[in-house]
Amino acid sequence: MPLIVLVGLPGSGKTTVGRSLARRLQLPFADSDAVIEQRLGCSIRDYFDHQGEAAFRDIEQTVIDELTQGPPGVLATGGGAVLRPANRRHLRQRGTVIYLRASPEQLHRRLRHDTKRPLLQVDDPLARLRALHAERDPLYRECAHFVLDAHGSSLSMLVGRIVMQLELMPGAGVTAAPPASAPPGG
């Protein structure tokens, strides 16, 4: 089974969906932003504030390269991981990439009180989300093996749709444990 990678805009549910998907597939889970923060010893927002985005993207590229060479598992990436061509190449070549797509308006409703995402700490977060979507949507699509609408489905339904897509991929070798709510043998 390959590495399963989740990409998408900030707030699209990559970490939440990734954890649930990993449990369902009985695979290890990693979040590239959490790995980066562990290495830095501070939050990404603090690092952004003191070192700038370019320095952060350098570290992110190293972490993405390392995590995509590891054993099979589920990897949630930061929203900007696709900005660098090397990251897009590594994600697509070394894993099965799922783009969790959500509109800027949906994400704004979800994130309007979030203070941890450095790129959204601006006067008009909705305008920023629209700009990020315009810039990144083509990049997510470039590296994704398939795109799923991340809005309007429950977590279990979304994970189920991902598992179904993975099972349909030729040579994927994905077999999922039944959902926790399913009766034994069903």
Major sheet details: 5 strands, parallel
C-alpha end-to-end distance: 24 Å
Number of helices: 8
Tell the overall outline: globular
Number of distinct beta strands: 5
Q: In which range does the helix fraction lie? A: 40-55%
Structural class: alpha/beta
Parts with pLDDT < 50 across at least 5 consecutive residues: 181-186
Strand order of the largest sheet: 2-3-1-4-5
Radius of gyration: 16 Å
Task: Give your account of this protein's structure.
By secondary structure, the protein is an alpha/beta fold. It is globular, with a radius of gyration of 16 Å. The two termini are 24 Å apart.
Task: Give the topology.
Blueprint: E1 3-7, H1 14-25, E2 29-31, H2 32-40, H3 44-51, H4 53-67, E3 74-76, H5 85-94, E4 95-101, H6 104-111, H7 125-143, E5 146-149, H8 155-168
Parallel strand pairs: 1-3, 1-4, 2-3, 4-5
Helix pairs in contact: 1-8, 2-4, 3-4, 5-7, 6-7
Task: Summarize this entry quickly.
With 186 residues, this protein is α/β, with parallel strands linked by helices.
What are the key terms here?
about 190 residues; alpha/beta; 5-stranded parallel beta sheet; 8 helices; disordered C terminus
